[in-house]
Amino acid sequence: RKEVEQDPGPFNVPEGATVAFNCTYSNSASQSFFWYRQDCRKEPKLLMSVYSSGNEDGRFTAQLNRASQYISLLIRDSKLSDSATYLCAVNPTGANNLFFGTGTRLTVIP
Amino acid sequence: DGGITQSPKYLFRKEGQNVTLSCEQNLNHDAMYWYRQDPGQGLRLIYYSQIVNDFQKGDIAEGYSVSREKKESFPLTVTSAQKNPTAFYLCASSETSGGRNEQFFGPGTRLTVL
Q1: Which residues of B fall within a CB distance of 8 Å from A47?
Q2: Distance between CA B64 and CA B22 in Å, rounded?
Q3: Exposed, middle or buried, A75 (CB in 10 Å: 0-12/13-18/19+)?
């Protein structure tokens, strides 16, 4: 089983829609979680960190469900500029590095 | 400006040649990492270093080598032993204290083997 799994999508949503992605992780002892945004042919950029139950930043909300071992990213009022690939990353306790999912591709349609 | 730089942006190599990718950071981070990304795949860890003069193999270290002689620098050498080196290479850095380990990435190097 992979450390981190994501639905690759693509998710095609109209402007203004709300969209949510899930990311499951296998190590129940994991303590820190991250969402990155990656534009085509660019580096990943940190979007949100999740150290407890969740985090909110404007239109973006990340939530952690420890019982079911997944994190979610909710984007409200989608903008065309939100079109990108969203990567989740997990830091299992004691590990010195992050495990990344393969990413979920989002396209926001006018 | 604080950040991570990688050079070159694009690199072309003939089979059988070794090439070295540069990564420099001025964020005063202790830890540095090298990943490769292939189309449709996630980031896979090649090597990482938590402190100067020390580094550890990641999941796909075969055919690669690194050094960490300075805190700011973590160059990656892709050797001729790497069978499929064409990929997007990403360098990252992070703090190691305070329980926060967000990684920040450089702009990447695209390596193509001709």
Answers
A1: none
A2: 13
A3: buried
Per-residue pLDDT of chain B (114 residues), as tens digits, is 669 999 999 999 998 899 999 999 999 999 999 999 998 788 999 999 999 999 999 999 999 999 999 999 999 999 988 889 999 999 999 988 766 789 999 999 999 998
Q: Is the dihedral of CA A70, A76, A78, A81 positive or negative?
A: negative
Q: Kindly list the distances between the CA atom of residue A40 and the CA atoms of A45, A98, B42, B112, in Å, as whole numbers in the listed order.
A: 12, 21, 14, 18
- The separation between CA B112 and the C-alpha centre of its own chain, rounded to angstroms, equals 16
Instruction: Give the nearest partner residue to B101 out of A4, A91, A101, using CB atoms.
Output: A91
Pairing of strands B4-7, A19-25: unpaired
Chain A nearest-CA residue for B97? A96
Residue type, A9: G
The Cα–Cα gap between A68 and A99 comes to: 18
B109 three-class SS: strand
